[in-house]
Design a protein that fits this description.
This protein has about 675 residues and is α+β, with helices and mostly antiparallel strands. About 35% of the residues lie in helices and about 20% in strands. The chain is built from 22 helices and 29 strands. Strands 4, 5, 8, 9, 10, 11, 12, 13 and 14 form a nine-stranded mixed beta sheet that branches. The chain has a six-stranded mixed beta sheet with strand order 1-29-25-24-22-23, with helices on both faces. It is flat.
Length: about 675
Amino acid sequence: MNNTENENLQTMEAEDMNSAAEIAEKNAEAAVSYVDGELDTAVSADYGAEQIQVLEGLEAVRMRPGMYIGSTGPRGLHHLVYEIVDNSIDEALAGFCTEINVEILPGNIITVRDNGRGIPVDIKPEQGLPAVTVVLTVLHAGGKFGGSGYKVSGGLHGVGSSVVNALSEYFVVEVSQHGKVHRQRFERGHIVTDLEVVGETDKTGTYIEFKADPQIFTETTVYDYEILERRIREQSYLTAGLKITLSDYRDMENPVTKEFCAEGGIREYVEWLNDSRGLVKLHEDTIHFNTVSGDRSADIALLYNDGYNENILSYANNVRTEDGGAHENGFKTALTRVFNEYGRKYNILKDADKNLSGDDVREGLTAVISVKLTDAQFEGQTKGKLGNTDITPMVSKMVYEKLMTHFEENPSIARAIFTKALEASRAREAARKAREAARRKSALESNSLPGKLAYCTDKNPENTEIYIVEGDSAGGSAKEGRDRTTQAILPLWGKMLNVEKSRLDKVIGNDKLMPVVLALGTGIGDDFDIQKLRYHKVVIMADADVDGQHIRTLLLTFFFRYMRPLIDHGYVYIAQPPLFKVSKGKKFEYAFSDEQRDELIEKFGGSCDIQRYKGLGEMDPEQLWETTMDPSFRTMLRVTMEDAIEADEVFSILMGDQVAPRREFIERNAKFANNLDI
């Protein structure tokens, strides 16, 4: 979840900076020139058709890759693989593919092979080229636009294989079709060889091999196996019966191969998502139902755990709709309606009781909603929200009828879930009263900010940052050593509440957490407003020992569960204080790891004095400033959330009640832990 950010660098992404510089330079060259020190406006005055640049073929992709894959960092790099694999999955959704094999070869070369129909190789009359060549060299060319090639597809808004081709150092395609194997090679989007027959076969399918272009992906071209594994596991659950194999051969002595095949589809997905959570008593079997109406289908699985957070994952044509949409709205509306009507019908809800809210009935819920439809309308290039409003009544009707029937046929399960929802309702009411009391108290007090907060004088959130510091001692050093113009300090002491095991009513008013909420100014839960944030850098600064790590985890859990937009907007950071001061004579430098310490000892010629910092409180204000708080020197970790599903699982494992999953997680990840001298 962490990305290293060196503060002496600008925060703008490298590719955006390059793009901005290119645009500025070209605009300046085209519009303005100087002659003998005088401004010459002749060039700009002659602005006409000849100044309009038309990019041919895939040149636009290489010039502005971020427009097509999001970024040229690790996220964009892995997106290349997703685009190719998704094409094979579309073949599976169409009923023509049963196996997909993905490999990472030495040199970070990717291969994807499927046993689908194969990209067509016959000639496209309009271009005079084989169809496969057109698909790989022309944007928005493919079999998903006309409606006859694919009934459903997740790639209607994507630009797929042609973009991957454009951004690859080399790209090879082999199509097995009509008894022959056809092969073509491209380099940086350009055709290197014509499509040629290289063999015979009795199989069908497509094989693609590519290597990401280091000229585009300047940050890294190294793939993270676990990122690809998560994506492929997700897709296997969404396509029941499809076998996907992921292999990593970069270490030939220790290759890794995993096979994913979920015959139970999303039912197994929901069960996997709840592996690290305790389930509601008497409700240990996933509720699963589906329906088909014309060219649309809906598949829903749900299960309640004993936690307090909802986890709803929705998909349309296997594309994750992170912002929900019509299908998710239909599910939520029907779920709330079922609870209230069932509760009234069977006297669980009394006449004097208020109706349960959506938040009440979704507490502890894990649900996967998967719809398939022709002509899916995704809002935006990122496909974050489904816009087909006609899917709402279909999903709502199915959920209402089938869940109501399930409750009536299984009254003990219904009662168990209702008990949890009623407890959530009472806690919600208690939280509301606590919020009102907190507001009244703030209104009566002349200063509603926590007393230990040391303000900064600059009031522009874009310029300011707040350090949440463990302990009064370290807080004192931070207050003395800081830049008072832009850096605020909030000392905390003692262990704070583990919100993974607490409802919101216990969080509001907590003496360890509310100072953080008040200092940030955003409110909490339903009252959260990112526009009221007082600081655009929220920095957690704790000791590099077990207690410090625990405090960091507790704070991150709190932000993730109740102030998540802070993480979504990239406002949360973790300070990185040094572990050692290495000195010899009058020379000294700081080391942030054992390896860096050893390098400095060698650099200084051995026999050095080594000071090991066991806590922030051991540093004087000057040391704390120059090592950890000075923007021109410090290194901080920005907390990001590339995969919210994994983040949710990790927080549940580490901070939840289940011991076995936590022990397994620690044992599995022990090799990544630092050796701490504590």
